[in-house]
Specification:
Elements lengths: L2 H23 L27 E4 L5 E4 L4 E3 L6 E7 L3 E10 L9 H11 L3 E14 L2 E11 L4 E10 L4 E9 L3 H14 L3
Antiparallel strand pairs: 1-2, 3-4, 4-5, 5-9, 6-7, 7-8, 8-9
């Protein structure tokens, strides 16, 4: 094989590798199976910290939330907790709801953003999605997206998680202006969620 041909093959191989890395790092619908990676590399199922509160919803799923967060009354059979600040309203938000409609682990990446639009949210932007993620006692599919309501622009982690006997949705959100302050707590709550 000529030197020129070896160089061309090597250059093509490097270009394909770089293309694979570039495609893997672009935002958008990132679907994967197996251990968490990329946008969901932080998801490590485990019990909540000892001082966190735990709320149980219809179907048995549990939502954990830290001290200082207040439980809020919402729909029957669900659990909601929020971190509230005078003048700022909601600084952090957690919710668990039993699976209610046409959502599945397979369609979650499109179902959740469409659901937000149906709820009247604007400028819904999918950042990442993944399937086959581990949860305490089960597995699930998650999205990270941004959306704008009449009050603020939010970023959320929203997951549909299932066990052999039930499925439930967990949502962890904060205003985008507060995301960096709340992200670690929200991720911890999702990691502690038990469907």
């Amino acid at each position: 094989m000529s030197r020129r041909r070896r160089v061309a093959i090597a250059a093509t191989a490097v270009a394909l590798i770089l293309l694979g890395v570039f495609v893997g790092l672009t935002p958008g619908d990132q679907t994967s199976h197996g251990p968490p990676a990329g946008a969901f590399g932080w998801l490590r199922p485990g019990p909540p910290p000892a001082d966190w509160n735990v709320a149980r919803i219809t179907g048995g799923a549990t939502l954990s939330y830290p001290p200082g967060w207040r439980p809020l009354k919402t729909d029957p059979g669900t659990a909601t907790a929020a971190l509230l600040r005078d003048g700022d309203g909601i600084v952090g938000y957690l919710n668990a709801t039993p699976r209610q409609g046409q959502e599945t682990l397979e369609n979650w990446g499109s179902f959740r953003p469409d659901h937000n639009r149906d709820e009247g949210d604007r400028s819904v932007h999918l950042i990442a999605s993944s399937t086959g993620l581990p949860f305490r006692g089960g597995h699930g599919s998650c999205v990270i997206d941004d959306y704008t309501t009449s009050k603020a622009t939010y970023r959320e982690i929203a997951c549909l998680a299932s066990t052999a006997g039930s499925s439930a949705v967990v949502v962890a959100a904060a205003p985008t202006s507060r995301w960096h302050q709340q992200a670690a707590t929200l991720r911890r709550a999702v990691s502690a969620f038990a469907p």
